[in-house]
């Protein structure tokens, strides 16, 4: 089975550029919202100085570094109770022959990757 980006590289590049543009637009929108809220609320309530767009962007980056925001939490626990556990259960229920067949299927899939050296694999075994 050919990969999507191998079949349509121009379409893939177009989608990648579109995603990058959307990400930049989302960051710019968040920065503008932060700047507007800061200048609209905090300037009058706390008597702080108004901030520029770039200062608001700096505050967003700083908050990301300090608090790890904008995401769904720690990614290390994302698969708890999910795919990982199901795969481990399936693996433990397999017979040694089924395990070897499974490994061989994945080896065959990985041979399509760039840089695969069949002689290196044979020397390891």
Observed structural traits:
125 residues; mainly alpha; 6 helices; 0% strand; elongated
Fraction in beta strands: under 5%
**What gyration radius follows from the Cα positions, in whole Å?**
25 Å
The helical percent reads: over 70%
N-end to C-end Cα span: 28 Å
Kindly state the number of beta strands: 0
Secondary structure category: mainly alpha
Query: What order do the SSEs take from the amino end to the carboxyl end, as H and E?
Result: HHHHHH
Question: Mean pLDDT, rounded to whole units?
Answer: 79
Q: What is the count of DSSP helices, taking H or I runs of 4+ residues?
A: 6
Sketch the major β-sheet: none
Give the low-confidence spans.
none
Per the principal axes of the C-alpha atoms, what is the gross shape?
elongated
Structural commentary:
Helix 2 crosses helix 3 (53-67). The mean pLDDT is 79. The chain has six helices and no strands. Helix content is 71%, strand content 0%. It has a domain at 1-71. The two termini are 28 Å apart.
Helix-strand layout with pairing:
Layout: H1 4-7, H2 9-45, H3 53-67, H4 83-93, H5 96-110, H6 118-124
Helix pairs in contact: 2-3
What can be said about this structure in brief?
It is built from 6 helices and no strands. With 125 residues, it is an all-alpha fold. It is elongated, with a radius of gyration of 25 Å.
């Amino acid at each position: 089975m050919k990969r999507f980006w191998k079949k349509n590289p121009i379409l893939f590049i177009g989608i990648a550029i579109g995603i990058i543009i959307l990400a930049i637009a989302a960051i710019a929108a968040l920065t503008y919202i932060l700047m507007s809220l800061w200048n609209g609320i905090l300037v009058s309530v706390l008597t702080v100085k108004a901030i520029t767009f770039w200062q608001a962007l700096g505050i967003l980056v700083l908050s990301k570094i300090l608090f790890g925001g904008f995401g769904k939490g720690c990614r290390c626990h994302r698969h708890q109770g999910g795919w990982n556990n199901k795969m481990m259960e399936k693996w433990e229920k397999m017979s040694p022959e089924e395990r070897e067949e499974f490994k061989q299927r994945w080896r065959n899939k990985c041979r399509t990757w760039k840089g695969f050296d069949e002689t290196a694999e044979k020397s390891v075994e």
